[in-house]
Design goal:
The chain is built from seven helices and nine strands. By secondary structure, the protein is an alpha+beta fold. It has a domain at about 5-210: BirA Bifunctional Protein, domain 2 (2-Layer Sandwich). It is rod-shaped. The termini are far apart.
């Protein structure tokens, strides 16, 4: 199945819009986002929404309604109840929820790491696109495709709600008086807006800008699919090369540390070996000194005994013990 990027933004008033293009009121939109009973019949098994950024949708709507009560139109009159007071948008992840989340009763566990990365990229893009006007972001994981609702509050400047500050289509119409030209510049700006979202978020995850029905021609569809896939492959290849470079650098550092450790070990081993040799030679020398002492003592006893025998036989005159110099015992240690 084709995985296409989906980004949509719509303005809502305090009262529903009726006619050829009916539109619900703001309170109904936020009630559906918060999964209030009676407002989410399209969801078989609703899950509590996750607030990813800012305040709750209800709090955002209450602030928008309060701000609208102070707003004035070009004629310095109160704005109509059907006039836009806040924008609500949605970005959808084009992979079936069953492949992204695993449900556990009234909780959902994300099992697709790409979805987590996609979600972070969307939060970054939304914050960069709308700045302080982005007042709430809510995640839904209980429908066919995981998606995120976001709410944007136009600023109130000198009593006027400046929709053009937060909406590119409205911004493009500023200063354009011709009705047909207003429609043209509006559509062009909105198309470029979708292109920017695709380049910043969708293309990085291999999502196409257009679906096969929109492309009409299979040849152009295949070209666009290959272009987006090549771009996604390039991003993945760059990430892989960066990871490989990181691994190589880490290996080099570890190898250098290992060599230093080996050198230190060798120095330590050499010192220990010299110490062992020194102690072994010292023990040998001590043994030789002890043996010399023993031989000197034995020789002294033998000389003393021989002298006594010679004196007894009258062959050696009597002399004092100190007059017979026996070999001195070795005492150097």
């Amino acid at each position: 199945m084709t995985e296409c990027s989906f980004f949509h933004i719509e303005g809502y008033g305090r009262k529903p819009l009726v006619g050829k293009r009916p539109k619900p009121a703001l309170d109904g939109v936020v009630a559906e986002a918060e999964r209030r009973p009676g407002f989410c019949a399209h969801v078989a098994s609703p899950l509590p929404p996750q607030i990813l950024l800012g305040i709750t949708p209800t709090q955002a709507a209450e602030f928008a309604v309060e701000q609208a009560s102070r707003a004035r139109n070009a004629a310095s009159r109160r704005i109509r109840s059907i006039d836009i007071v806040m924008y609500a948008g949605v970005v959808s992840y084009p992979v079936e929820a069953g492949k992204v989340v695993r449900r556990h009763g009234d909780k959902a566990e994300v099992i697709d790491p790409l979805y987590t990365a996609w979600l972070k990229e969307n939060l970054v893009w939304l914050a960069r696109e709308f700045g302080d006007a982005l007042v709430s972001v809510v995640e839904h994981l209980d429908e066919a495709y995981p998606h995120v609702h976001f709410y944007v509050q136009p600023p109130l400047e000198e009593g006027r709600l400046r929709l053009d500050r937060v909406h590119r289509g409205r911004r493009a119409q500023v200063g354009v008086t011709d009705k047909s030209e207003q429609g043209r510049v509006y559509c062009f700006a909105m198309s470029r807006w979708l292109d920017d979202y695709q380049a910043a978020v969708g293309a990085s995850f291999g999502h196409e800008r257009f679906g096969p029905k929109r492309m009409r021609t299979s040849r152009w569809w295949q070209m666009e699919k290959r272009r987006v896939q090549n771009q996604a492959n390039a991003v993945a290849e760059a990430a892989r090369l960066a990871a490989e470079r990181s691994v190589v650098e880490t290996k080099k550092k570890l190898h250098s540390q290992l060599l230093l450790l080996k050198e230190e070990l060798c120095r330590t081993s050499d010192t220990e070996a010299l110490q062992l040799i020194f102690h072994a030679e010292r023990r040998k020398l001590q043994q030789r000194l002890d043996e010399a002492d023993k031989r000197a003592a034995l020789d002294a006893r033998r000389i003393a005994k021989a002298g006594a025998m010679l004196r007894a036989a009258g062959l050696l005159p009597d002399i004092g013990p100190g007059e017979l110099n026996a070999p001195a015992a070795c005492s150097a240690r």
